[in-house]
Amino acid sequence: MSQLRHQGLANKLGGKLVKLGSERLELQHEPNRAMAKNYGSCVASKIPEVERDMCLKEFCALKNCMNNVDSVLSVGLIDMDPRASSSRASIGSSGSGALSHVYIQYPPMRCSIPGSKGVFYDDGNKLLLSPTSDQVFSWKVAPFDPHAEPTSDSISDGPMLSIRYSLDAKFLAVQRSSHEIQFWNKETGRTFSHKCRPESESILGFFWTDCPTCNIVLVKTSGLDLSIYDSESQSLRLVESKRINVNWYIYTHESRLVLLASGMQCKSFTGFQGLPNPLPLGAPGVPYGEPSICLLSSAGIVRLPKFEMLMAKSEANSKPVLAAEDIHVITVYGRIYCLQVDRTAMLLHCYRFYRDAVVQQGSLPIYSSKVAVSVVDNVLLVHQVDAKVVILYDLFADSRAPISAPLPLLLRGYRRAGMGSFGLTSKDDESSGSKQTSDHEMTLYKDGWAFLIPDLICDTTDGLLWKIHLDLDAISASSSDVPTVLEFLQRRKLEANKAKRLCLALARTMIVERRPVNIVSRAMDVLITSYSHAIKTGSYFKGMKAEKSPASCTQRIHCPKSAAEDFTHTGDSRGGVLKIDSASEISNESHRRYSMLSDSDSEGNVGPSSACRKGIMGTETFVAKVQPSSQLSGPTHVPLDVDKAETEDSHVTTAAISPDEIYLFVFAQADEEMGGDPSYLVAVMVEFLRSANLERIRIYPNVYVLMIKLLARSDRFAELGLFVIDKIIEPSKEVAYQLLLAGRRHFPTRKLGIDMLRQLHLHHDYILSLCQDGYYLEALRYARKLKVVTIRPSLFLESACASNDSQRLATVLRFFADFIPGFRSTSDHATYCHILSQMNSSSLSA
Amino acid sequence: MGLSSAATIPSDAVKLCVFDRTRGQREGEEVEKILFFHPPELPLGDQLSVVGLSEGLITFTRIFSPDAACEVIEAERHSHVFYQAEPDIWMVMVVERNRELEAIWRIEALRSILKEVHSLFIMFFGSIRTMLGKESSGSVVRSHLYSFITDYLFDFSSGKKLQLPTFRDSLKERGTVQMLTVGREAAVEIQNNKNSYVFLYCSILNSSGRLCLRLKSLVRVLESCAGSVRCHSLILFHDLLVSTSLYPDDTVNLYTYATMRMSPRALSSSSRSWSYLYRGSTAAHLTTGSVLPTSSSSSEHIHRSRDTSPSGDDRYVIVRPLQQDKWSKGKDGFLVTERWSSDAQTLNSSIPTIWLKQTEEMMYLCAHQHKNVTIILLIPVTSINSVERDIPIVKQQFLENASLKILKLEEKLSKGWGGENAYHVSGYRYLLVDGDRNVSRASPAAKVTTLAKESLVAMCKLREEVDLEKSIMKLDDERCEKDLEVCIRAKNNAWVIARAMRGKELYMVLEKANETLLYASEAMDKFSNRYCNGAFSLD
């Protein structure tokens, strides 16, 4: 019946299965062809819309679409974005460029041990444990390394219900039965068994804790036992017990929260939270993200108010019982949420834990009766296991709309054998047997999959451990709502460097594409606010510190200014406006610095000027452009290059982008790419200034210099004047010199520049500019008034001589003779006296 | 037509004529030269004698100075002020000289009236020469000039006489804009506001451009279209200019027009005493609303009449942009004008168009007013295919995107504004002119009136001197800007000072500073340092 229905639908939709623009559709599984068609065309037709708006409406439509497809395929279908696909082209995964936002990277960590009695996850120590009859193997899963070798400890044989190392990894506790827990001291090898009264209670489980008052908590049907395990005396000393009837419990170490389910339907919950004592204030990962919680931590265990979960009833009288696997405790942005699967209503209820309350905060729709939850970099991943798709939510915002469309999990880096059609001949020599097993291993969403907190998947049947990654590229490419995407990216900590690069690229692209100004404005707001926040919380500088030593860090903070100065000075001297001593000195010095730098880095160095002129984009050049910037930002800084970019990922802790970086990688590059009428770019830069102004962030003059260049290029001198007079362009030496440069074509603008020099009390430069314009008398007057003595008299004399007016030359000569002691004996005096007499005689003879 | 009050102006006081030297070369056809004469009821013979004398003087002085013919002829009883508006098209103003104090004026101030009316005419209709080229009989030009200049002069009418600027207006400068001084924060806000208007239309095009990206055939068209669209905007607060994206010349023209007819003050049509430029305290408002066609029936009538008269017919409608009460505020905040249809080629009748001198573009003019903030949006005519369809879209977009911003802007500006006397500096009566940017600032008119007649007359004379000096400098060297400082002691012991430095001029009257020249000079320096960033500090 259902088969028929699909057939009809497929026929209906089949016509649409042609090329949809650049979207390519490929089907892999022969037998399910019709259904694949069906599903594929549904997805293909809906994805652009979902992608565009991330809107729930299209999403629901897609859901309907998917519900019609019972058997789910391992489809890797659509290659939407040529950019995304090109970045993934080398990976050659099973999905062959499949669109997905979440991926697991091949190879997985292999944790199968012959004779294993199952796999346990110790989330307190982030260890994966696999006990055999006499040994327990443990793999460290954080940081995740697929080639990590296990360590082993020997234990005695016996049943094993659960196994956990103590937090200092000195002891090992194994729950042998519902009445007995056995402790091992790893150093001494001594053992000790703790038993409870079997007639009245049974042990549900246990966990180690870093509470100040106790170090192990036993969860029994009669309540919690907070105890201290003392290895010296080989005893378990009870500190405190909380009497509650417990049906089952949930504990996650990252939240330090234990939830005890009680009641007939198991829907009443009591939460306890054990807090470590020396809790660093404001550190990342503070429970609730509220510092006030620290006051309570001295008590060790905080009891949260009792609360009940909502459960929809399928029938009037039925009383569904809540199971432990329906409750997930997650930690996102330092907040603790509890997610409850309500299968009847097909909703995922979301509760947030506060210190004094538990508040329901909306529900997320689910499309599968089996749901698993992971958290990657504070993003909530809801795996719709039956549908084999993942939906991403960012719980930071109030909206409970998904970040992106439900798309399958992608297996990256695995080349499926026997896929000759894809031209992968290298694997042909593999035996068919291994092919089958490996294919089986690589099946996504198998029954044996266990989702470990926070972002691991354990394949219990094959003994594989996968780590889930977010594909930030794909996520950012999937939505056209750039400000929202930027917000999302700015919150990413795990791949902060990548997020940062994506942000810069997005911002630049949206400017190059000339998106509406108000949208760009929002995007700028996002970036600046995020930066401001990072500065305030100190995470920005922390990221810097992680990158390099503290000494160079301070230098880096202060140096964008000096870098900018250097930059504009060289620009000026190259332009040839100022053929004067001081400027050439500065440029000489900066040249010397540059040359020193380019000596210091040995390979593939790109000179600052040549790199700046380079206009071609692409990832390579992007990275190449990082180099001059880092050169500019300080002599001690090691230039980033392609190889290092990846390794530095882990060092940068925030995706916040400084205004200087926005200038370098967004405005300066957008200017190169856009060409034409720069009024749009100017408008965007004004928006940027507005944002920065709101957050009281200082903007370095290079932004203003660029604005002046742009305005001057389009001959909009009137506006430029307005910008300068209204101080939108803040006065600075660089700006003044750029105005002088621009003023070569428009005299009033030059005057603005000269006036700015005067207002900045840059007497030397002011007088020089006046002399250049032939106002040497005014310059002299000014020099005398403010006692500027740094300028050679010959400059004035030359200028006066050029006017060919003997009176004026005489005036200037007289001025110096009167006011500079010893001027009469200089060569200048003699020269110009001679010129003067010549002038006079020629005028007399005439 | 319309303004019957013009007929009652006494003919002897002021005469104004526009004539074309190239026309009416043959004897007996001299009357062809005259394109406009005020007062119109003057006998033709008298008109011809004025024009003839003027032409004779021009021809004569050209012998000595071919490039710049005479500027002014001062006869015993009359002064002739000449202005060559376009090649061979001259505007001459003849004013009567008498011993009365009221008749002391500055020639440059009179000439600036001629300049202003001509540049406004060009802004709305293009040059007179082109108009003559299109229709050689001159009847179109004559009827346009007649209605336009008569409407313009209406602003100067006081009772039955024309009240031209006298020495009392010597601390005012026509042909400049008055800027509102704003802090940086507000300035950024304004720019950001302005950008959202300027790019409004671009964004409309762009969004449709994105939609059409899939229909590849249209992309190129739209790109070229969106690339070249350059909207302009002008923001006014009260009668002060806040922001502009236009070139200085166009800014001055549009600003002048806006303050004449579109600003809240002009709209409320009650002349307020603090107005900087126009009408001052002397202007009385005549015949308010009597010629205002309010109902839509009149515009319908025009539509009909246009429909029935194909092009070439002489029953065209003359646009009168300077007509009193031309504009009124609509419900949505946009200013609407009842009648606007220029001749022949334009299809629309409701959206005004103006001609930008600098970019040589025709622009549609949309004005939006919220309280005291007036925003003028200029959209290139070439970028709009169908006025009836596109302009409402632009307006809608404008309201959607910008109305909140305007609200905020108004709030901010109102909060930061010091009121009518914001730019008053106690003890000083001043005029500050920035010739580079056509910007001026002056003491409030109400404060200027407190000066003694003697000081003002002295200032008037001083300015005349400076004007002369400037024109000589200009003859010497176009670019060179010499510094100039004149301090004179008026009869009433007031110091009257003029200082010109590198393109900026500062005039001031110090009545209380009757100590020494040094004292006056120090007061000047203090003012310069405090309010002009030290631009006028000499030593």
From TrEMBL, chain A:
Pfam families: RMC1_C, RMC1_N. Residues 119-236 form the Regulator of MON1-CCZ1 complex N-terminal domain. InterPro entries: RMC1, RMC1_C, RMC1_N, WD40_repeat_dom_sf. Residues 640-818 form the Mic1 domain. One of its GO terms (cellular component) is late endosome membrane. One of its GO terms (biological process) is regulation of autophagy. This is Mic1 domain-containing protein.
TrEMBL record, chain B:
InterPro entries: Ccz1, CCZ1/INTU/HSP4_longin_1. Residues 289-314 are annotated as: Disordered. One of its GO terms (biological process) is vesicle-mediated transport. One of its GO terms (cellular component) is Mon1-Ccz1 complex. Residues 300-314 have a biased composition (Basic and acidic residues). Residues 17-126 form the CCZ1/INTU/HSP4 first Longin domain. It holds the Pfam family Intu_longin_1. Belongs to the CCZ1 family. This is CCZ1/INTU/HSP4 first Longin domain-containing protein. It comes from Carnegiea gigantea.
